[in-house]
């Protein structure tokens, strides 16, 4: 996961073992393991559990994007301006990560993921906000439409194969994201770069790289 240690120059160096990077344009989801509350400077929205429940059609199975040891990720819809839940096909799609009771991602890692929301780069996934109510822990991210690089490389879920030209663009996008995270000002050390953590928001040759921030 993600820890902080003092660097040789006294600066804080962040270490991250789990991430997702947005490519074709690309993206990065980070997890951490640090003892800290949610920073007051973190500019993310606090969502209510009821609103996220409505946004995902009561966490319907048809809305599941993926699942793992952490829990499930659901597709939901929110209003672009108010960020309130709306009907499917209206507003903007989001990915709602719902941590299970037996999640492999602990509460410290969950908090650290929120506190990394200040990171901003065209190749990083944007965190819109979070929900912390009773036992419910959820994170709300921008929706990346074309799934993981892993699915495209191994042709899973009817994903179309990628040309070598597009694969080079993906690699360049990942390199840009890592260079940003490893720079002196950010000091995030990524320790888990893999195909399943690289998300594609474009799969056509003529598409421009996406420039929205994390």
Describe the structure in brief:
This is non-specific serine/threonine protein kinase. By secondary structure, this protein is α/β, with parallel strands linked by helices. The chain has four helices and eleven strands; from the N terminus they run E-E-E-E-H-E-E-E-H-E-E-H-H-E-E.
Order of helices and strands: EEEEHEEEHEEHHEE
State the helicity in percent bands: 10-25%
Count of all domains = 1
Mean pLDDT: 76
What about the largest sheet?
6 strands, mixed
CATH fold group: Phosphorylase Kinase, domain 1
Number of strands: 11
**Quaternary class:** single chain
Task: Tell me what the structure shows.
The chain is of the alpha/beta class. The chain has a single domain, classed as Phosphorylase Kinase, domain 1. The chain is built from four helices and eleven strands, in the order ββββαβββαββααββ. The protein has a six-stranded mixed sheet, with helices on one face. A three-stranded mixed sheet has the order 1-2-10. The chain is globular. The N terminus and C terminus are likely disordered.
Compile the SSE list and pairings.
Elements: E1 3-6, E2 12-16, E3 21-23, E4 45-46, H1 49-55, E5 64-68, E6 71-78, E7 92-99, H2 107-115, E8 127-133, E9 136-142, H3 149-153, H4 164-182, E10 188-190, E11 198-200
Parallel strand pairs: 2-10, 3-11, 4-8
Antiparallel strand pairs: 1-2, 5-6, 6-7, 7-9, 8-9
């Amino acid at each position: 996961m993600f820890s902080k240690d003092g660097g040789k120059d006294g600066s804080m160096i962040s270490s991250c073992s789990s991430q997702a990077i947005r490519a074709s344009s690309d993206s990065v989801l980070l997890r951490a393991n640090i003892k800290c509350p949610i920073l007051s400077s973190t500019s993310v929205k606090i969502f209510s559990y009821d609103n996220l429940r409505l946004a995902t059609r009561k966490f319907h199975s048809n809305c599941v994007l993926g699942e793992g040891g952490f829990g499930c990720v659901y597709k939901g819809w929110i209003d672009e301006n108010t960020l309130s839940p709306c009907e499917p096909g209206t507003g903007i799609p989001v990915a709602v990560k719902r941590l299970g009771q037996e999640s492999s991602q602990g509460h410290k890692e969950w908090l650290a993921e929120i506190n990394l929301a200040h990171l901003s780069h065209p190749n990083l996934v944007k965190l819109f906000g979070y929900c912390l109510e009773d036992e419910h822990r959820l994170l709300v991210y921008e929706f990346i439409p074309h799934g993981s690089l892993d699915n495209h490389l191994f042709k899973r879920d009817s994903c179309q194969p990628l040309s070598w030209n597009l694969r080079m663009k993906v690699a360049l996008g990942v390199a840009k994201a890592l260079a940003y995270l490893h720079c002196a000002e950010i000091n995030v050390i990524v320790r888990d770069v893999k195909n399943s953590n690289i998300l594609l928001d474009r799969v056509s040759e003529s598409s421009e790289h996406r420039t929205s921030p994390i």
